[in-house]
Amino acid sequence: MPLTHAIVHHLTQTAHAEKLHLRDTEMNLDESLKHLVNEVKSSFYNRASKQYGRFHEESGHFKALTQQWLQGSLDFTAYSSRVMQQLQLKLQETQQESDGHWLFAVEELQQERLFWLFHLKHKDGMYLTHDIELAQGMLLDFTKLGFGACINIPALENQETDFFTVSFGFGDRSLQSTVLEFTDFTDTVDTTADTERFMAIVKAYTEQLPPEKGASYRSKAIQYCAEQDKQGETVVCQELSEVIDEEVGNTEAESLIRYIEQAEPEAKKEFIPDRKSLKRFMRYTGKSKEVSISFSNESLGSQVEFDPDNERLIINSLPAALLKQLKQE
């Protein structure tokens, strides 16, 4: 992970304290810093609730400052400091409270240049010094990472529609509208609709296959999408089709991508998977006050049968533990 820039500032904006501590130089790009960035990136990618979009058409402070930095009229330190000053003013204006450090970082990948912004929160902790003495301090709490944002710089410069990704952590609900407004973010991608549209296509395609093969194909397609989501990658239909068709032994004429081109030519060939939608396709779940039911997608039609006319489920293979309980009664 070749980091090229990184800096951290501290902002406290509460009813009892207002403090902005700005670092005046960039941080050393050492292993500790790389570990920090890897930790927060991992937390960011693992979140289910990410939003994808771009800057508003109207220019706000964050958008304007980002453009000044990219055009070279501000260096990275000055850019990050100006952003923090404007953020403090925004929190004062909206009477919102926030405390923690803000990490700004840039990494150069093979085909991408990414800008990262993270709100780092703290917890009180105890640690052992090099002299094996106990000491107290404030530790970064990676389990409670706050707001996170990623800007794909080449995509921004090419004026693409989805170069900006944002996500919030637990306990950030009150800040969401303020921070989204401050960062000039606007949604342009409906990941839920895109995922559900693709899975509807997969369902229609697999219904043409023999039942066992169709169930296996649907399961593999869901797993592929889920894995892409974990890695923070898009799903490219051509690549998914090549991988799964080879696994199940389909010919090129039988492939999913061929079906999409013929039956759904207007469908997106690449999309960002939505984790919550995928979970609904992985398992059927439901509960009432008296009954809770959950079973995998693959079970329907074999171990579990659905009678739509009478709205009944028929379970052909009970779990051993449940069967034991029932027989004891």
Give a concise summary.
Keywords: Cytoplasm. The chain is an alpha+beta fold.
Q: Can you put this structure into words, describing what you see?
A:
By secondary structure, the protein is an alpha+beta fold. The protein has 3 domains: 185 residues, no CATH class; 88 residues, no CATH class; 45 residues, no CATH class. The strands form 5 sheets. An 8-stranded antiparallel sheet has the order 2-1-4-5-8-9-3-10, with helices on both faces. It starts with a strand and ends with a helix. Keywords: Cytoplasm. GO terms for molecular function: double-stranded DNA binding; single-stranded RNA binding. It is found in: Cytoplasm, Nucleoid.
Count of all domains? 3
Mean pLDDT: 89
Distance between the termini: 59 Å
The rounded Rg comes to: 25 Å
Q: How are strands sequenced across the largest beta sheet? A: 2-1-4-5-8-9-3-10
Largest sheet: 8 strands, antiparallel
Strand content: 25-35%
Count of discrete alpha- or pi-helical segments spanning 4 or more residues: 11
Question: How many β-strand stretches?
Answer: 16
Instruction: Give the helix level as a range of percent.
Output: 25-40%
Unreliable residue runs: none
Global structural class: alpha+beta
* Dominant shape: globular
Which H/E pattern describes the elements?
EEHEHHEEEEEHEHEHHEHHEHEEEEH
